[in-house]
User: Fold these one by one.
Assistant:
Number 1:
Amino acid sequence: MKNIPFIIAFLLCFCGFSQTEKHQDIKTTIKEVTVFQSNAQVTREKSVDLFAGETILKFINLSPFIDAKSIQVKADGAVTILNVSHQQNFIDKLEKQKELVTLESKLIEITTKIELESTLIEILKEELTFLNENRNIGGKNESLTVTNLRETATYYSSRLTALKLKEIERNQTLSKLKNERRDLENQINTFTSKREYPNGEILVKVASKNNSKVTFEISYIVGNAGWFPSYDIRAKNVNEPIELIYKANVKQDTKIDWKDVKLKLSTANPTVSGIAPELKPYFLNYNLAPPVYKLESNSVSGIVTDGSSPLPGASVIVKGTTIGATTDFDGKYSISIPNGARELVFSYLGYVTKTVSIDKNVLNVQLQEDASTLDEVVVVGYGTKKNNSISQILQGVVPGVKIRGAASIEIPVEQIENQTSVDFEIKMPYTIKSDNKSYAVDISNYSLAADYQYYSVPKINKNAFLMANITDWEKYNLLEGEANIFFEETYIGKSLLDVRYAKDTLQISLGVDKNIQIEREKITDFASKKFIGSRKEELRNWKINIKNNKNQQISMVIFDQIPVSVNEEIKVEILNISGANHTLETGELKWIFKLNPKESKVFDLKYTVKYPKNKNLLIE
């Protein structure tokens, strides 16, 4: 009991000390955004007037998707940062977008009008029913005169006409209102999320010896943002350089608009007729079938839904690459698939990310809502605790505050090569709204000297693919991505710019040229089978015809193959390959030649296969 006065005095002193703690709510503006392949780093800045002593600064109206571990704070002035923490404010939630609020208000208004018109139509129907049920005007003891009949018929006709016309008018109004409601609902559905989100907040406890004005810079990683590259490739003809427009497709749904920010894009990550086919080695052995080529379109398309409605703006990425696409208003997508790709990754705000195997050309995907919600949890340093008072949150000094700075480079686009990534700094301020829509940002425009050559594997595909071969491509820091191809001022379609496997020369496929005619036919008159002693001998003969229907000379390469024996009993003898370059290990044949306008060439491919007559061998 003797200690009670001492405890009370201590608590009174502690309370008095707590009351000296000052609090400020700080609204900041976004200074810079660095967008990664996935996620983004947001940098904000604000000058704050501080009084002497300790102050808790609460930076408010931030994204609810902040990664607390990534928060960095820089103070430019005579001030000591004592603590930094992060929390979600579920009371003062982020405001919905003004456009969404306006649309929802109109939807409520239209819905009310629809209910009113429906009620008026029901009243008209009741009046029509009443009028029809009371058409009999004569009673049991009353005689019906001609005058009464005429008056009644006139009243009934005029009233019935008025009611029917009114019903038609009401139904027309109702139909118009329903169309307006449908359009409003469709427009509202373009917004990725219509629910309210908590207000992200960063709390910074500082100590200042004197009254001063201090500039604070805070930065953090935020989710629901990213970018992927795409290209426009333009070739006027085979005698001029290629124009390559390097674009970034930036999208974000952090619930905070990025208005006139300094934008930096980083390669770091915290219908495709233009893809030429490839030959497989043709190994020859007993009971071994020749290689089978399945002609694929090298593209996947489909619809992404939540089970009941489409999801516009959903991300579709080829797993392990930067090749991506987004769904349109109807939830539809189409994406180019590089050779060897196996999986697509589908993601959408508020839904569980889904990885799907590429086993067909049409993949319709249904995403499930993410059951996890943003709990009311405050992050202190690198740990978590339940929401308490601000004073309780910021007791003690927590490490992890990092100081950093960044330089501004005043040029349109600067490529900065880091150890493991490349940054593209863009001078022109950009505004990226939080609507999950893709915004195209031009990174660079290159004029690339190219060596043009037509490429064909008629055994698989009889089309001639125009390939542009580019050297010294590494200096442009290109990423794999889809490319829109324009040749001779005409849009041809999509192709892939895949730099992952490129070596000294980068090949860009410019699509199929229908002015190059190619045929590969089997000469059946020369296909034979005969027995010589204990062995069988089979002859195969193929002819490849190429014609240049263009008005200019072209350079071309044709691929075919000779089977390769992997058994000593099987002998392959080449009779004629028309001067092709022959790779013994794989059996690949390659003809490189030029064709003048309207000129034709014929290549002859003839070989025999000898093997024991008591064996069976599948020969193409």
Number 2:
Amino acid sequence: MPTITRLPDLLISQIAAGEVVERPASVLKELLENSLDAGSKAIQVHLEEGGIKLIRITDDGCGIAKEQLALALTRHATSKIATLEDLEHVGTLGFRGEALASVASVARLTLSSREQGSSHAWKLKAETGAEPEPAALMAGTVVEMRDLYYNTPARRKFLKAEGTEFAHCADAVRRLAMTRPDVAFSLTHNGRNLFQLAPSDSTRRIADILGDDFIRAARPLEVAAGPLSISGFAIDPTRATEAKDGQYVFVNNRFVRDKVIAHALREAYRDVLHGSRQPAVCLFVTIDPALVDVNVHPAKTEVRFRDSRAMHQFIFHALQRTLATPVQAANAEFAAPSIAAVNPENQAFSAPSFANYSPPLQHQGTLGVNEPAAAAYLAFARATQDIGNTYSPSLNPASAPQFTPRAEADHNSPPLGYAIAQLHGIYVLAQNARGLVLVDMHAAHERILYEKLKTAFDSRQVATQNLLIPAVFSADSLDIAAVEEHSEALAELGFAIAPLGPNQLGVRSVPALLQSGDPAALARSLIAELREHGISQLATARRNELLATMACHGAVRARRLLTVPEMNALLRQMEETERAGQCNHGRPTWTELPLVELDKLFLRGQ
């Protein structure tokens, strides 16, 4: 019979290290979090061989007293929590007290520190029987890790090439640097300085790390509801790429990979992304620490929300409303999918700082500990109610301002300007105060109809248009059976379809928004959807796809000639329509070519 024995302390620490220390970047992350928790304002990172040979972190934090150096290297020793209540309200990045002990069990670790107000610095090696000895250090703490996995060669075999491990380390530094723009960071690898970040505001720090192009291609986001707030930037859908590593989400300044948040991002971008493009975001979520459990995994990259549904809806609606901002209400810098780059010298990074953001209350009363997330979501929902569409259901030229020769000098002209002409029956050419605007008329009209159909369907106010002569088309017995079975659902969508013979169906009425489309083609696509998915799916995920198909068939077709008043009517409706920058398939509907770029083409002023 096997004998039960206690594991040696070293083996216990090495087992724990398997959860905390996955690679050099894991060590670096834990040590950097300790430096930030210590109140550091400047942190220097030195790496050798991708962090495998050496990781040295130097900070100017509060330091550690001589008599506590040995205690800091033991398992489950921490200054950050003492009771369960502290754990439930933890506001620091680290709290487990396992990092230093775990690293010391699989690497050679040296800890040097000088406590604030102390006259001397002390150094301690993580070795059995080692004693603190004097060290030369002005202030703060230096943690030096050498030869990762020197005593566990089997685990060292799983490490990747030096370049790969360094890339993970650099990413760990950048993530933490984004959360603390008030702290200076520097990174050196193999004696070469890779970057040095000075203290700055949040937007400038994000631009330094993700690039000015990301800031110019993204839309700023700032929404608060009770104890919940979200700040940062979300990529404009027309600027999205297929890269899958562009999502940076932080919860209380902690980088997380959360399935609830990831799903909310996908849902918010569902209607506006083309093909396999991915939403790039840099979002900072602030929530009462009591409402989120950060003690889910030793690596602390996973969290659990007390009310996951409320958090999902909060993030989904915040992003959706930001992406849905009509052109006339959006800042042209972020709303216009311009093909010309914005001059960085003209950019002012003036977005509000959200590193230490304290959200204002937007509801009455005090939230209890057990129900704040749900109440906060209700407050948020009230603050972001959908705005009803008030524009007319067709391209009505009567209400659209007309182009005048003075419009080119009118800096108060509409964002999309005034129509000038039509190109090949496909594109509308317009001029605004900045230059030339090109519009894909079919894609733009498709989005307008789609948004109107969604609004009408949600409010159950789908206006119908009776046809003077029914549109008759051939149908098989399954099509006829589907029409008879789903007659009520078809009526809710604005269609009246009835059998006119053993192999014929007739369309007697269509939604008024789609009266200019082909009734037979609309009916065929609708019946095909009903046969494949049934009515039960119509009210959920497939509904929007069905409405998008209807809008595509009902939009103005290419090669159709429009008058200038009709083109201006299209531009004005685009300015009032949510998500007008993308069609139902995620393709851009318009772009802008500023006069500066036109002048460059013709070498004007050169």
